[in-house]
Amino acid sequence: MKENSHGDEFKLTDTLIVLVLLTLGLVQLAFGGVFVWSYSRMTAALLGLAIITMLVRFVRLFIDAKPMALPGPVFLLPFVFLFLGFTQVIPLPPGLVGILSPERLLQVDQLAGIGAVDPHSWITLSIAPHTTWLWMARLASYITAFVLVVYSVRSRKRAIAIILVLAGFALFQIFYGSVQAYSHTPRIWWWVKDLHESFVSGTYFNRNHLAGFLEIVLPLWLGFTFWMVHLHAMRKLPKKVVEAAEKSRHRRRRVKADSPRYYSWRKIGLRQKLVSLASRLERQARPAACYTVGAVLFVGLLLTGSRGGILAFIASLIVMGVLMLFFKKFNVRVKALAVLVGFSLVLGLFIGMEQTMERFEQEEGLYHRIAISRSVLPTVGDYAVTGAGLGNFRQPYLAHSLPRYGGRIELIYAHNDWLQIAVEAGIPGMILSAAGFFALLFWGFRRWRRRHDIFILGVGLGLLAGIISLGLHSLTDFNMQIPANAMTFAIAIGLLAAVLTMRHTKNGLAPGFWEQGIIVQSRFNAMVLLLIGIVVAGVLLDKSMSHAIAENICATERNPMKRVTHPCGFDEVFKALDVDPADPSLWARLGAIYQEQQGQSRALRALHAKKAVKAYTESLVRQPVNGRSWLYLGESRLKLFVVTGDFTDLELAEEAFAVALQQRPNDAQLLSRLAEHRLWLARIMPPGPLSRNLKNDGIFFAKRSLQCWRWDWRQVVPMVLLYTQDPEDLKQIVPDHEDPGRKIVRYLEKRDIHFPPGTFAWEKEESGA
């Protein structure tokens, strides 16, 4: 069936498609959008488009009285999460918060204990509202991408254009990543790649994230290839070829107009032969190109070495094969192609991919992911009902983290998107997400079964398989936390909704998504909804851009665009706080600057200590689960105690240290500093039980520090030697492992501190052997 006669014209909807895809391409090039300067510009572009579109629609309400359509119930889950985010940043009475989130109320009590807040003041459910605002801004930008794609895909050609652009992005990522991996120049633009240098990652930092993008595009391309093969298999021979065959007198069988069989070349002129050859080549060129692109995409997925991505794609491929063979009457050639492609792709796992096979043979990686997921479960229990706040996983997880991720290395994401949703939105939020995901698949599968157009069947099946693949991969990774992949996922859902709801007309395929959505008949209600959308988008845009501007003035996040040789000083911090006063990291940076000041007079040192205490307190009010800020607050109080001699400051310092230890029990650096504080207090205290207890605590914290991160012994052991040279004390901090236990013993022996033979477990094992 032919497309609409106006399909070749460039319309406003084409401009929207170009802008959305251009934004996606730039975000991918910008390291996947993980930095503030990249995701803030993505948010600005998409939310700006959303505001302009809603303003145009608002003005059109005064011109015509056409009802406004909203997405159907299946597609309202992102809007529900946006509403959930607003409920988490709105202050609520402490009694209600205590019922919904007891852990959150406990944090407020800790702040009230140091005089930071009024215990009766209203508080938010989110532990860090600033982070939740930024997360909601990104979510709103993904919603915008989905809506614009659904609105703009009004014909088959628009859908094909999006598929081709996504495939082009994928091919570029594979080519660029291959140049990185095999030219021994492991750089992403100017940034030195220090993780998995031999695997393909493109412009993403992590190879798993490139795999997440490819596992959406590859099934979509396979579905597109099935349509292309079917289309060319059913095409009629060109008229010129038929005429050339009819001119042959020695041929007994004439070629039928709908037959793809070859005909005799005897006594056919050169011109007719060339026409025939060109026609046959043209018949095979496009399918061959599709096969080639599909093979390159799959090889690129293998070269990422992502076990979760490869297995998730194979699972989605099985789903495609089952649905294609048993639920729809595809052309026999397409079925054969599906079986051949599936077999060849699975076979490709075992041919020429040594690095990838080595990854599959490493079982410790799987056990490590399982251990991470188990360690996240206690954090889910702490915020089971309402969550810690959207975007707030990193800090609350540290209270129950694995020792290796206690501080020196921190998990920013849970390596399991479903569990991370449970931490940030509570168990009800995770159940809602899973229900929305399966509802989308059920809606798509039911719509797919009712369609008969081969294009809709092929592309719709590829999109469903890609969504399933990313959902499975999310069990072992955090692709949905990467802006480029989350935006690709939104575009895929938008394309799925647009394709599966297309209806046949006399002019070709036409959009039907909005006709099947929620219709708002009242003009007044439509105006109210548009005004709410414009206000929400404007507020979120302001939050995102304020944070970006403040980070440009004083960077507190990792940023490859700002190679700062000297950290920002007073002027930069105050300017940044004028732009974004709600950012707790800026207040913590201000406290660090005050704490680093070396005043010459006692009064000046006391003033700097008080300023540091105030800055860290302001930071903790905005993010009370930051154990490092509690540690630095305690050190500032301790410094104030040294200057003024007020024991109230010492008591407050001890309270801050206790909270810091509670929130970061496996932070080696925090434990080391607590050990030094305890040993220092034990020295200045008069001899007695209190002094001995402080000394024992210091030795215990030093031991725990080396248990969490044993490679810090070159800093911990000399620090302990400053306060004690007793072999009985030093024996306790030597780890049970031979490395670095033997190194520590040799280090102490050079300082005339010796231990009897067989003192340590690893020495007894050697003597027994």
Provide the fold topology.
Blueprint: H1 12-29, H2 36-63, E1 68-70, H3 77-89, H4 94-100, H5 102-113, H6 129-152, H7 156-182, E2 187-188, E3 191-192, H8 207-233, H9 239-246, H10 270-303, H11 307-326, H12 332-348, H13 354-361, H14 364-382, H15 394-397, H16 417-450, H17 454-473, H18 483-500, E4 503-505, E5 508-510, E6 518-520, H19 523-553, H20 570-579, H21 584-596, H22 602-622, H23 627-644, H24 647-663, H25 668-684, H26 689-708, H27 713-721, H28 727-733, H29 738-749, H30 761-768
Antiparallel strand pairs: 1-6, 2-3, 4-5
Detailed description of the structure:
The structure is a single chain. Helix content is 68%, strand content 2%. A hairpin with a 2-residue loop joins strand 4 and strand 5 (508-510). Strands 1-6 form a two-stranded antiparallel ribbon. A two-stranded antiparallel ribbon has the order 2-3. It is mostly helical. The protein has helices at residues 12-29, 36-63, 77-89, 94-100, 102-113, 129-152, 156-182, 207-233, 239-246, 270-303, 307-326, 332-348, 354-361, 364-382, 394-397, 417-450, 454-473, 483-500, 523-553, 570-579, 584-596, 602-622, 627-644, 647-663, 668-684, 689-708, 713-721, 727-733, 738-749, 761-768; strands at 68-70, 187-188, 191-192, 503-505, 508-510, 518-520.
Overall strand count: 6
Mean pLDDT: 84
Instruction: Note poorly predicted spans.
Output: 1-8, 248-267
The shape, in one word, is globular
Q: What multimeric state do the chains show?
A: single chain
